[in-house]
């Protein structure tokens, strides 16, 4: 039924998209979601081109013939605009159930074609109480796997070239996207991948925004070369054979500049110059004391700072300078968020990064010891728990930070503990 309906409306919609006068005064009626099959067709927000209704969630499931993949191209995009698309948005998924999200979109900018890895795609549109536009109109088509074209991101690459995150270099990459590049060199050649610029949200374990690189043509933990984030470009990466698979994922929070990388092909038996094959980051092996937890006895102790920066440096898991930007009172403790000025000892501390701004959350076990105030700068030394959370107790070293102390801290970074 759906296939027949769309075969009737297809020519009309194509003429509308190209600016031609329609041959009929009738308009298609777009419902809230539905199941769509066949080699091509159109989907649109409820009531398009009229303003879409508030407080709705519509789901479209697209299935094309086996052996093909789904390519979706937006002809119209007019939703409430927001940098992180928190209010009204369209989500595109690879598959119908528990699929990888390919992207989240809002505003009026139309992305390039989004392509699945199999023959199914799910499109979800959500609107809040306030609407702000005519919604979307999109065309889907069954294409062959690895077929070329103007994709939003990712794709099959078999000639030396460049790969980059969406929006590069004009603005930060968007939240909530997944891009996958499959690079294939000729037989008996390997792939060299080098990054010119690299800036993703920073996290010690790259749990949020990250880029992962795999030997072969798919994401497989066994074949993973490395998982990368932060603002330091990875060392040059070399494939074991003629294929590499690169996957970039951003979550729905902080974003950053992104990356641009260049790849080329080399004979398999050629001498590799530069850094050796990049391996997955490992957890730092620096020994650390067990983080303290709150106790009434601990917080009843007299609050006096003892020792010096030098005497506390080696016994601390982390050493930072930062500005206290927020302090949330809990039952017995304080959750303090610091905007980081500098990191002198990182250990396993969980650090969030967006662009050039870094921050970290630290639990102060006793509300009044040490007593910290929002807006002031501090030197903070403390322990780290198993989740990477900074912990500060009355025994740790915390003091107001002044510029003259910066030289003392810089010298300490050369100390071998």
Automatic annotation (TrEMBL):
Kindly give the SMART domains that the UniProt entry links to this protein.
Answer: C345C, CUB
Question: Which residue range or ranges hold the NTR domain?
Answer: 299-417
- UniProt GO molecular function: collagen binding; peptidase activator activity
* Residue ranges of domain CUB in the record: 32-143, 153-266
Task: Tell me the superkingdom of the source.
Answer: Eukaryota
**Cellular component GO terms, alphabetical:** extracellular region
- Where is the secretion signal located? 1-19
Name under which the protein is recorded = Procollagen C-endopeptidase enhancer 2b
């Amino acid at each position: 039924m759906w296939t027949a309906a769309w075969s009737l409306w297809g020519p009309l919609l194509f003429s509308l998209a190209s600016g031609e006068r329609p041959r009929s005064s009738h308009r298609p009626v777009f419902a809230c979601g539905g199941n769509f099959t066949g080699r091509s067709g159109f989907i649109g927000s409820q009531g398009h081109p009229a303003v879409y209704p508030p407080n709705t969630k519509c789901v479209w499931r697209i299935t094309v013939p086996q052996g093909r993949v789904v390519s979706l191209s937006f002809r119209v995009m007019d939703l409430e605009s927001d940098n992180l698309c928190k209010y009204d948005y369209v989500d595109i998924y690879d598959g119908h159930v528990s699929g990888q999200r390919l992207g989240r979109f809002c505003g009026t900018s139309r992305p390039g074609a989004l392509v699945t890895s199999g023959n199914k795609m799910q499109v979800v549109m959500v609107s809040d109480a306030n609407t702000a536009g005519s919604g979307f109109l999109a065309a889907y088509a069954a294409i062959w796997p690895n077929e070329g074209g103007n994709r939003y991101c990712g794709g099959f690459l078999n000639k030396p070239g460049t790969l980059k995150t969406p929006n590069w270099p004009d603005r930060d990459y968007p939240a909530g996207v997944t891009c996958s590049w499959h690079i294939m060199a000729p037989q008996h050649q390997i792939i060299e991948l080098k990054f010119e610029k690299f800036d993703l949200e920073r996290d010690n374990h790259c749990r949020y925004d990250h880029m992962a690189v795999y030997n072969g043509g798919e994401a497989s933990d066994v074949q993973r070369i490395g998982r990368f984030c932060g603002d330091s470009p990875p060392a040059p990466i070399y494939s074991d054979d003629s294929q590499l698979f690169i996957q970039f994922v951003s979550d729905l929070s902080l974003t950053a500049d992104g990356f641009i990388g260049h790849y080329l092909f080399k004979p398999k038996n050629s001498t590799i110059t530069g850094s050796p094959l990049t391996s997955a980051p490992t957890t730092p092996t620096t020994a650390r004391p067990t983080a303290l937890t709150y106790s009434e006895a601990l917080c009843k102790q007299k609050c006096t700072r003892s020792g010096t920066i030098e005497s506390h440096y080696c016994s601390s898991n982390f050493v930072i300078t930062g500005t206290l930007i927020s302090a949330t009172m809990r039952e017995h403790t304080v959750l303090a968020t610091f905007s980081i000025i500098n990191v002198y000892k990182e250990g396993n501390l969980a650090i969030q990064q967006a662009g050039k701004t870094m921050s970290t959350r630290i639990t102060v076990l006793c509300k009044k010891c040490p007593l910290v105030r929002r807006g002031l700068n501090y030197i903070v030394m403390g322990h780290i728990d198993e989740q990477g959370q900074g912990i500060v107790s009355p025994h740790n070293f915390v003091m107001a930070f002044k510029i003259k102390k910066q030289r003392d801290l810089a010298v300490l970074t050369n100390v071998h503990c």
